[in-house]
Amino acid sequence: xxxxxxAALYQFVDLPDCAQLQAPLQACCDAHSVRGxxxxxxxxxxxxxxGPPDGVRAVLAWxxxxxxxxxLPHKEAWGERQPFYRMRVRLKxxxxxxxxxxxxxxxxxxxxxxxxxxxxxxxxxxxxVVDTRNDYEVGIGSFARALNPHTRSFAEFxxxxxxxxxxxxxxxxxxxxxxxxxxxxxxxKSTAYLKSQGFxxxxxxxxxxxxxxxxxxxxxxxxxxDCFVFDERVSVGHGLAPGHHQLCRACRMPLGxxxxxxxxxxxxxxxxxxxxxxxxxxxxxxxxRERQVQLxxxxxxxxxxxxxxxxxxxxxxxxxxxxxxx
Length: 326
Fold this sequence. Notes:
Largest sheet: 5 strands, mixed
Structural class: alpha/beta
Radius of gyration: 20 Å
CATH architecture of the largest domain: 3-Layer(aba) Sandwich
Number of domains: 2
CATH topology of the largest domain: Oxidized Rhodanese, domain 1
CATH class of the largest domain: Alpha Beta
């Protein structure tokens, strides 16, 4: 059995006293040798933690001892090494940033659709299917028929909705909308937003793409490509098997076979997305970092921070919508 358990979690719930939870939650994680990043906001909690199984479960039990978090869900993954280098509990305005005041996903999110029922919904030509993830995520895989809003951050989503709600737009006159994201958190907030804009029937995939890939047989699947994930796997496919992408350690973009074969790809230094964007001095520093990573690997040591995948943008959520790895 692998030595480390990773738990990704989030819940929209009213936490007006979130600042008072910060210090004791940090102390609980430290006491149980648990690392990662947890965000607390008045609208809830979001994050990913990893450590010894007993330690992770102790932190989850501590959180669930609060009656408001008694039903806090989480997803588990196992690994041979600790994927985080430190533990941080941070206070935020939102656990996933949309930038629209007054939304309450805990009370006003759309209708959950279980993975087993998702195909029937998105096969309906009267239903508009929207991928709420960012452009680089959509670029490596999505559901058939899904619209790509081409956003660089989740905060751009309301502007896309406004534009597409105008006459001739993809959402104009379309009361039935089905949305999905990696693990569910962005969907809950985006469905609450659409409902606030007057959309009548708004649905979202329960458990996100990850739960769909885990539970729906590949032969029945409407998914094409890989699903980008915010951890060391980079991407996954059906059955949550490892995908076909690596991460550019310079710009954090996911790279497939074509990008890895590009003359602009140099391990740890550049890829087709970031080639030519740095000074020679910066490229030399990246090359030296990569050299140190390789030397550390040969010694069986971890080069702190150099090999830890991070999202493409600092504001991106991580596993199931959790924050980026610290």
